[in-house]
Amino acid sequence: MRRPGLFTLASLAAFFATTAIAQVSSEPPQIGVAGWSEFIEGLRTLPDRLLAKLPAEQRADPQVQQEIGRLAVASLTAALLESLGSDGDHPAFVANQNLTLNYPQPNADTIYRISRVTPGGTYRLRGERGSLRQANIGQAGPMPGEPGGGALQAGTKRGVLDLNGLHVDKRGRFDVIISPVRPAGYSGDWWELASNTTRLLLRTVQADTSKERDPTISIERIDIPPQRARTPAATVEARLRDLPRAAALLPSIFVTSGARLRADGFLHKFKMVDAAQNGGLSGQVYYSSAYELADDEVLLITTRPPAKCLYRSIQLATEFEETIDWHNNQSSLNDMQAKPDRDGVLRIVISARDPGIPNWLDTSGYRRGIVAGRWMGCDSNPTPTIEKLPLAELRARLPADTPSVSPAQRETSIRDRREVLQQRPLW
Asked: What is the CATH architecture assignment of 257-422?
């Protein structure tokens, strides 16, 4: 005896299957989304354009080719997130750089978020201040290729909002207005917004993981109604068409970083750069060098660190300015993680093989790359020295009381490191 309902169910299944096959087999309707083909075409050649900037031996390397493809995807993803959240009238801080959006060379201890703002608008920021040594918001104007970008923003003076300088209530919460002029009758915390600022960049730096706590933050525009209407088609299309430019901008600038350092004579020699002279944070000085290492070699970096420093760090990056995976490798060290020896000298060892000492940076399979350090808010900015040595000679060059780190201790340390990094609010 046939069970009731089976025939009906089988008929429906056959009908839907036939319909699905017919839909797959049929040609798509000739309607199209304006700008979509241009968006795809603008991205199609991006990896090739980046590879063309590299030396011939790198362009021909299949490993490098795939890494350039990954770099392009990371840059595109960051551009997509900003585009989807790029409403200066209804802003929000969206992820900008982290282990996933690893370009260009995020600081391993910093979480970066970005928010669009509309020039001339008035904004309110609220949240809990947290307890980080560094938590600040910088202003940025139009990027090259955007309306008003380029030379127009070069002379604009832009302040930096230090969250630690804000007043807080008993619960540790802050409330600050940012606008071109202070609102009439307003006596609370206020920050001047430059006339052509289009983006706010939030940087939160955690070095002492046992004590420091990240802030929370919200942003809203308060000089217009809070509701958001449907976005006009022309605006959506314009953002779509702009994505190839946005995705290509930073990779086109930084993909040759390693090659440029070598060409300028900075192989195993540090180049010093004052960040403020390039529109970065005041008080921050970078030092960087290209490196080349065989598996049985090490680089010994030495310096006498500043007596006073708000923050210092050193990390490894690829030739193309991707930070080497710092969640799953010890490829970065800050002032809480790398201590000077008893003689007051800070010694950092870079190698592919674990030398069994605390202050080690793991090249993680990258025989060539970039060493990048920073002094932030320090009373001096020394230039460290670099020396290449055989791995077998390293111990003889270190102080006799340099601690040893066993493989088991290293594994525990990296697992603990990853736990802390993953538990920060990355998104």
From this structure: Sandwich (2.60)
The C-alpha R_g of the chain, in whole angstroms, comes to 26
* pLDDT tens profile 111-138: 999 999 999 999 999 999 999 999 999 9
Which candidate, 363, 384, 352, 370, places its Cα nearest to that of 259? 370
Domain segments of the chain: what residues? 38-254, 257-422
Same fold: 38-254 with 257-422 = yes
pLDDT on residue 264? 98
**Does domain 38-254 sit in CATH 2.60.120?**
yes
Instruction: Give the integer Cα–Cα distance in Å for 40 and 46.
Output: 10
Q: Is the dihedral of CA 218, 222, 224, 226 positive or negative?
A: positive
Yes or no: say if 111 and 105 are a contact pair by the CB < 8 Å rule. no
Judged on CB neighbours under 10 Å (0-12, 13-18, 19+), 314 is buried
Contacts of 209 (CB under 8 A, 6+ apart): 336, 420
User: What was the pLDDT predicted at 155?
Assistant: 44
| Amino acid type, 226 | P
Specify the residue for token string 């990779």.
251
138 CA to centre of own chain: 14
User: Is the dihedral angle over the CA atoms 159, 165, 166, 167 positive or is it negative?
Assistant: negative
Residues of the chain with pLDDT under 70: 1-30, 150-157
